Amino acid sequence: MTDINQYSITEAVKKSFHAEDNERFTFLLEKMLDHLHDFTRETNLTHDEWMGVLNFLYDCGKISTPERHEFILLSDVLGLSALVDMINTKGGSTEGSNLGPFYLDDAPVKELGQDLGEEREGPRVLCTGIVRDTLGHPLPGAIVDTWQADSSGTYPIQEEGQDKYDLRGKFTCDDRGRYYYTTVLPKPYTVPYDGPVGNLLRAGKRHAWRAAHLHYIIRADRMRSITTELFFENTDYLDNDAVFGVRNSLITKVDRVRPEDSFDFELERRPDARLTYDFVLAPGE
User: Fold this and answer.
1) What is the pTM of this model?
2) How far is the C-alpha of 153 from the C-alpha of 137, rounded, in Å?
């Protein structure tokens, strides 16, 4: 390959891989190489700029931990996470939204009606609804996995000395497909701003604020799981969320709970407000 040049090198690199038995891998790799090399030629990338990118990615890896995934955060602020969510929302299911950098798969299993807020201050909101299939049938036994920031806009996992499993829980829907629990109403917050992604936002003169939200992963047997978020009407940053996570279909109303209001299920703690949202899952592939 002594005769390659800036125009022939792309095909030479593609031909150096031999994964004919994996068509999807080959397709993704070759498309990535096409776009990466075209970008480099189109921009006349300098050595300093090339090294700057490599150092930026190195810094993303260096700051990442099992509790903080800087590459997910990078994907979020570049809109890549949102784009993948949009492409993969199929079959009439609830729209997807960002996983974020703070998800933990081993969140504690909770009983329906429990309060996630423990002793944390802030208004208590009842989160309830039904998990359904695309025909409207309830899905008993569906798993509602949720996590969130607190009423000051901070995830417990970010606080030294705090229980990283606070404000997280996995609930199993009842025989009517219902989920219900109480928690503190979260506030808007800034994405982590003390690392390379924060430097990128500052360089681009972008704010780092996220609209207040609750995170969810919804799963059920033989159904396609969804990762999504719920947002609240008439709150800040709905129109300019830093990670492009807001969808109109994911904005829900929070209603005040009156003293005379009652519920047909037991709750560990009486709420100050209530939101109701039904999740929809499409059949699995």
Assistant:
1) 0.89
2) 35
Both tokens of residue 231? 């947002």
- Closest C-alpha to 13, from 1, 21, 24, 25: 1
Full domain range(s) for residue 255: 74-281
Is 2 among the domain residues? yes
pLDDT digits (tens, 9 = 90+) for 127-142: 999 999 999 999 999 9
Q: Which residues contact 54 (CB under 8 A, 6 or more apart)?
A: none
Q: Are residues 238 and 171 in the same domain?
A: yes
Domains identified in the chain, total number: 2
Q: What is the mean pLDDT of residues 43-63?
A: 97
**Six-digit token string for 66:** 């099992």
- 22 shares its domain with 137: no
Cα–Cα–Cα angle for 137, 139, 144, rounded to 5 degrees: 135
pLDDT tens-digit map of 25-43: 999 999 999 999 999 999 9
Identify whether residues 2 and 122 lie together within a single domain: no
In the chain, the amino acid numbered 49 is E
Percent of the chain with pLDDT over 70: 99
* Domain co-membership, 178 together with 267: yes
Token pair 């997807």: residue? 96
